[in-house]
Structures are given as C-alpha cells and as structure tokens.
C-alpha cells in the first residue's frame, strides 16, 4: 500500500509516519520509485504499536525506540509482554521526604515484606522487576502513613490480583505475534487498569449504599 | 497543644499550618493569649486529612476545601467516603480525537454497555457518579481501539472488583469518625490502588513465566 493508504488504515497522519521513519521507529517501505515506497501489513501493525506506546502509554520517542527494540529481540510472548510491562510504569503517589536513617530501615522492612509475600505466593518474579521495587516503595509509604496492611490482608489482595492477571492473559491468548501482543499489552496497561479501578470504585459505592440501606446486615452476607 | 507540638505530631511545618488556617481549611485553635492558641486532637486529625489530600491526592487548596466541606456535612461514613472517591479521579489514558458523528454513536454504545453491566450486577450506583462517566469513556476508548471486552469478560472483572472493594471496606471497618474515614479513603485510593496494580503486574509476570517454563500446561491448571 502507499503511504496515504497506510495513514488511512492506521489513523496516523502522513507527516507523523514520515517522522517515525526518520526516527528509526518504522522500517523503510519497499522503494518503487525515487520518492515512492510500498508498505505492507507489518508496517501497519508496527505503526499501531508505536501509536499505542506514544499516546496511550505516554512514552517518549526514545523510550518507544527501546521498547520496539526489546519487542523485536523478544521472539517470544514472554519477552514482548515483559518489555511493555517494564516500560509502562505504575505511578505511586508522592513519597514524603524522610530522614536518611528512617529511610534505610523502612526500605529494608518493606523489601523483606515483599520478598516474604512473593515466596509465600510462590510467584516466579525476577528480583530485577521494576514492579518489585514499586511495590516496596508503596508498602514503605503505607508504613510511614501508619496505614500498612496486616500480612494476611496483602496476601488476600494478591490472590485477587492473580485472578485478574489470569483474565488479562486470557485476553492475549489468541495473539502469537510479538508486535500484536505488545500492542494488546499497552491497551491492557493503559485502559484496562483504569477500567478495573473504576469498577472497584463503583463496587465500593454499591457496598456502602447497601450497608447504609440495610443497616449493615447486607454487606456482611454473601451476595 | 501548642502549634509547635501540633506540627511535631502531624509532620506538617508550622508555616504550612498557618497557611491552611488562613485558607480556612483548619479551624482556629482556642485563643490563650493575643498570639497564642491551643489546638486539640481534632486539629491534628483534620491536618492529617489535609496533608493526605494535598500530597497523596494531589488536590489543590480549592479542591481540598470542597472535600473538607463535603466531609463536614456528611455526618455519615457513606458521605465521607463518597466525597473523597468523587474528588480523586481515576486517570484514563489519552482519548484520541474523533469525528463528531462517531463520538455520539460510540458514547451512546458505551453508555448502554455500562448501564447494562450495572443492572446485571445489581449495583446501586447513582447515575451522577463520575466513575460511571469514567467507565463509559474508557469503554468507548476500548471500542475505538478495536479491543473491547466481550460482555462476559467485563462482568468477570467486575466480580473480582467487587471482592477487592469488600477488602477495602473491611480495612475501613473500625473507623466511625468521618474525618478519620476520609483520611483512610485517600490512602486507599492513592496508595492501595497502585499496590493492586503492581500485584497484578507481578502476577502476570509469574503466569507468563510459568507458562513458558511448563510449556503451557501449568497456566491452565488450578494453582
């Protein structure tokens, strides 16, 4: 297809396609004349991934290039999903400043809590995962706010997260191509994570309203 | 207690306490001399809520004032939790621009999908909830990206969100005071939502690694 058709198919303006070409994000088309090139399905697919990473994922051109490189080298669904998961961070609300001594102690305590939880769950997650570090930071902040979970509570949340992750992976089940998988992963991280949080908020509203309406009895009873 | 003690207890600098006083966020202490005032436990509690809303919640002074007003008028746990839930938005990734005609159709379709889901779940959530609107926007975006859920999938996520919300409300169970409840709610929305998302990412990593290691058999088997 010509560049105009590629633009129409993907919803990416021609000028942006040319920009992504110059930045090395998109491979060259097959030259058919001095100023004309022919593009294929693989260009359309990659362009959709670039669009998802830069708009939904909010990544810079440099970060997008890194993710694309990792996806290209992945040759497996594991690698492609991991590259996207690591590139799109989970924002944790503002860390309050603390004295250096407090910092080290709280960090170590939170790190031990995370390691214990992962061992208890028997989750195979590499220590180098940025999400292990993110979880450690969040738990440290909860301790500092004097609002930490009891250990059992965190495990209860983790069991539910496991069930959600299973649904997530089912949604990616039909996709074998790393580029298509990576695009689906961006959508899951950017849109489906807020969808779940919105459902959680609505479920909270529902439960609070039922509790008020039924004088506290209904909320405790099985639904 | 004196303002210096109030500052020490809450970790809020004296200058900030004075600023919150001038902005009308914090009630006056009991005057003990022309330039001295005595503060009580209720001041410390409210100051912790102001701190949570402005730092963790990222709210402006004006938005914080509105939430505090709603919490004061609430006189119930329902109202206090609702005020905080509505004030702290759930960010949904960038909406792509669309033609006006497409917009109306997609909005209506997504709105119908949300209404149907809530009816099916029998959730008592007011139509005026910003989270109903947020969910509608997110589903519209999923449709536009050609990555919408099958209806049953969304219900499956909603059931898990219901279980997560039940854990959330258990964590607030011991708190009857609206101000203390509101503070806990800010922490749940700002820190516990990322914690769940981080657990979800780690669970995904675990499941992908198991699937690769066990050749696809383990992921399908019950854990």
UniProtKB/TrEMBL annotation, chains A, B:
SUPFAM superfamilies to which the protein is assigned, alphabetical: Putative DNA-binding domain
GO terms for MF: DNA binding; DNA-binding transcription factor activity
Any single Pfam family the record assigns to this protein: MerR_1
Gene3D superfamilies attached to this UniProt entry: 1.10.1660.10
InterPro entries linked: DNA-bd_dom_put_sf (IPR009061), MerR-type_HTH_dom (IPR000551), MerR_fam (IPR047057)
UniProtKB keywords: DNA-binding, Repressor, Transcription, Transcription regulation
Domain HTH merR-type: from-to ranges: 1-70
Protein name: MerR family transcriptional regulator
Upper classification of the organism: Bacteria, Bacillati, Actinomycetota, Actinomycetes, Kitasatosporales
């Amino acid at each position: 297809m010509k560049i105009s058709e590629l633009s129409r198919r993907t919803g990416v303006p021609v000028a942006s396609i040319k920009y992504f070409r110059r930045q090395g994000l998109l491979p060259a088309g097959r030259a058919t004349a001095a100023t004309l090139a022919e593009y294929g399905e693989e260009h359309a697919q990659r362009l959709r991934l670039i669009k998802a990473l830069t708009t939904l994922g909010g990544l810079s051109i440099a970060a997008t290039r890194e993710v694309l490189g990792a996806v290209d080298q992945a040759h497996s669904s594991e690698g492609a999903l991991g590259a996207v998961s690591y590139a799109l961070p989970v924002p944790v609300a503002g860390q309050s400043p603390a004295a250096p001594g407090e910092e080290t102690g709280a960090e170590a305590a939170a790190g031990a809590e995370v390691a214990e939880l992962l061992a208890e769950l028997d989750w195979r997650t590499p220590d180098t995962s940025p999400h292990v570090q993110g979880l450690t930071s969040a738990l440290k902040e909860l301790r500092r706010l004097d609002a930490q979970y009891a250990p059992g509570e965190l495990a209860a949340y983790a069991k539910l997260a496991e069930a959600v992750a299973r649904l997530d992976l089912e949604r990616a089940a039909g996709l074998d191509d790393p580029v298509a998988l990576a695009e689906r992963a961006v959508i899951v991280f950017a849109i489906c994570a807020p969808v779940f949080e919105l459902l959680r908020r609505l479920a909270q509203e529902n439960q609070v309203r039922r509790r008020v309406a039924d004088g506290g009895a209904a909320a405790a009873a099985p639904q």
